[in-house]
Amino acid sequence: MASREMKELPPKEVFWHDEKMHQIDGFWYLDSLMESIAAFRSQFQPRTDDILLTSIPKTGTTWLIALCHSILHRHDNEEEEEDSLMKMNPHELVPTMDISYLTDQVQEHLKSDHTTTTTSPRFLHTHLPYSCLPEAVRSAGSSCKLVHVARNPKDTVVSMWHFYNKIFGSETTPDVTMESAVEGFCGGVIPYGPFYEHVVEYWEESRRRPEKVLFLKYEELCRAPNEHVRRLASFLGKPFGSDEDGDAEVEKVLWRSSLNRLKELEVNKSDEGLELAPIIPKSSFFRKGTVGGWKNYLTPQMAHRIDLLTEQKLQDTILSL
Ligand code: A3P
Fold it and tell me: Which residues are near ligand 1 (CB < 6 Å)?
């Protein structure tokens, strides 16, 4: 997505109320982010120990950021309640490259790790699909690590519906209906979509290069958090001990990163926008966090339509969502 390609933008769609999106190399991007995405792709230089978190919006990004941060900083000299998550929204602690690459804050963040220790690796996030990541990140010689979180499509579409109505809506614009949201989702016309192609790219790369890409599922994290947090910590090179102390550390990381804790912190309660993305209220990342909550929002026909598509799109993989 060089600047030349951005000037010759191919197929165009309207997303939500009147946000414009363009499709490049099979994936959809909001027009408002094209410049930042292009700069990230062409200018970003990974370090060997960088950790890049990846996700489709609303699949568990905030949780993943909080977990990784708490794992990497668990030995920092902090009181139980006094970690950095208490002072900063997770999305300000770990910026999203494709949204705010060109800001001064992100450029500062890239110069060093701005959190509490200088020994921690750089720790970043992106919603870009694997095939659209900077070449230097994907290349065989690059040793930076990627962690991807995926979520079942029906809970994802419902979470998107709440989120995008909140950020793109206003008091005078009626909410986009769930029918339209499902229509857009199934047609692949969502930011960074199509959903299935995006998730399959990371899944396949995690199978090709398991030492480079860790693939996590939101539902699995909910079902067996201790097991998957241990897996995540080992992948990040910071394994927990298998003794009681290790178990206690896992519990602390889970508690620090939990939805119940984060949503009650003053720093996350505000309807004020993120400094790096002012249209996104800090509170908008925290809602119910349930598995199967879609049952309260999707009609049986909508659910059936998504199930059929999931089956069709994943039939050549052993991935289930
Ligand atoms: P729901 O809308 O289903 O409640 P993202 O972080 O990718 O934007 O995803 C947001 C979804 O993750 C929301 O789901 C939100 O409630 C949930 N979430 C946010 N923080 C979480 C946490 N610490 N633990 C579990 N789920 C969390």
Answer: 55, 57-63, 66, 155, 159, 162, 257-259, 262, 285-289, 293
